[in-house]
Design brief:
423 residues; Carbamate kinase; four-stranded mixed sheet; binds aspartic acid; binds magnesium ion
Length: 423
């Protein structure tokens, strides 16, 4: 008998009908002879609604109470799902993250899992139950406080449980049919990928693809847990994410896996920086001390006449204020002329391990952007990725143009988005 972990996202359990539909799928997996552990997210946009509510009460809610509040969303869906399964004549028990043995550090709102001790889940399974676990939450090892893993953290819960329980597969059910060559909400001709390596998936996730979270893929790679991303609204086979393709998992488009985009970043330009040793160090030390994570960095050559240069970098929009304040505070020691802040940018990335050995990918990428009349502001590359920053307004057109240029357009049906508000 196999053990499967299934995870259902918020849009799959958005209402009572959704919960009943998902309950049927879970029962089917059990009837097929599996032990089934289910990780569930909060219903629909519940988490966002709870955040809005908290902000109405307090502009900066305390981390501990905020986590206590947010974990309520997953408790609602786990209990309802267990009820719906029982109603179909099968045994089910729901567990909070803490009860399921998800142990984290004590960083509220973005805790990291440090151990998983699923003793109660094992017992529940051995007694013939389907175990339902609240996603995105745990309990801190030292203070025994309830923590959350950061937005979208239920995927990580699922993979962590799959690793701890030595599951055969972690199935992530979502509102699209799998991982696509681009966001199907933007590119109608996006193509479903049959199999993708952990490596390429990690790079897509880091570049803004939202279908799987980076941390979840990282965890799956570390413990070598194959992930099957698929829709809870269709019976179709989805996308397998693993080290090596198995059986009939097709490997298409070996050069390029996909195009990702990200509109969640802003760009800061530090203008008029003296071109001498220690300047970049001072800027990024100030940013690091403010606990801001940066992404791309670009420095221009200095103008001969002034000996001054500009340094630009990108960072999450949400951290913009903190970074600007940190730089202003250190203006005296760093010595720059001014700061420019721009949050109307988009990052577009082309990802694929095949580009390591195929010349011309960079040229083709830039040509596609130029043909679409899109101006490039920053460029950064890794071995298997090229990213550019453009105006936010250009993002949809740019992604479609690049997708077509690399022959990724599907010639069959349009990609289906079954649910979710994309919020
Ligand atoms: N409910 C949480 C969120 O919306 C966790 C999750 O969905 O994975 O971020
Ligand atoms: Mg959610």
């Amino acid at each position: 008998m196999g053990l499967v972990v299934q995870k259902y996202g918020g849009s799959s359990v958005a209402d009572a009908e959704g919960i009943k539909r998902v309950a049927k799928r879970i029962v089917d997996a059990k009837k097929n002879g599996n032990q089934v552990v289910v990780v569930v997210s909060a219903m629909g946009d519940t988490t966002d609604e709870l955040i809005d509510l908290a902000e109405q009460v307090s502009p900066i809610p305390a981390g501990r109470e905020f986590d206590m509040l947010l974990t309520a969303g997953e408790r609602i869906s786990m209990a309802l799902l267990a009820m719906a399964i029982k109603n179909l004549g099968h045994e089910a028990q729901s567990f909070t993250g803490s009860q399921a043995g998800v142990i984290t550090d004590s960083v509220h709102n973005k805790a990291r899992i440090i151990d998983v001790t699923p003793g109660r889940i094992r017992t529940a399974l051995d007694e013939g139950n389907i175990a339902i676990v609240a996603g995105f939450q745990g309990v801190s090892q030292d203070k025994k406080d309830i923590t959350t893993l950061g937005r979208g953290g239920s995927d990580t819960t699922a993979v962590a449980l799959a690793a701890a329980l030595d599951a055969e597969v972690c199935e992530i059910y979502t509102d699209v049919d799998g991982v696509f060559t681009a966001d199907p909400r933007v590119v109608k001709k996006a193509r479903k990928i049959d199999w993708i390596s952990f490596e390429d998936m990690l790079e897509l996730a880091a570049s803004g693809s939202k279908v799987l979270l980076h941390r979840c893929v990282e965890y799956a790679r570390r413990y070598n847990i194959p992930i099957h991303v698929r829709s809870s609204f269709s019976g179709l086979r989805g996308t397998w994410v693993s080290n090596e393709p198995q059986g009939d998992q097709k490997v298409e488009h070996a050069i390029i896996s996909g195009v990702a985009h990200d509109v969640s970043e802003a760009k800061i330009t530090v203008v008029g920086v003296p071109d001498k040793p220690g300047e970049a160090a001072a800027i990024f030390r100030a940013i690091a001390n403010a606990e801001v994570n940066i992404d791309m960095v670009v420095q221009n050559v200095s103008a001969a006449s002034t000996g001054l240069t500009d340094i630009s970098f990108t960072l999450p929009k949400a951290e913009g204020r903190k970074a600007i304040d940190a730089l202003e505070r250190n203006r005296g020691t760093i010595g720059f002329e001014s700061l420019r802040y721009d949050d109307q940018i988009a990052k577009i990335s082309l990802v694929g391990a095949g580009m390591k050995t195929n010349p011309g990918v960079t040229a083709g990428f830039f040509e596609a952007l130029s043909d679409a009349g899109v101006n490039i502001e920053l460029i950064s590359t890794s071995e298997i990725r090229i990213s550019v920053v453009t105006r936010a307004d250009d993002v949809n057109e740019a992604v479609c143009a690049v997708h077509t240029a690399f022959g990724l357009d599907s010639d069959s049906d349009e990609a289906v988005v079954y649910g979710g508000t994309g919020r």
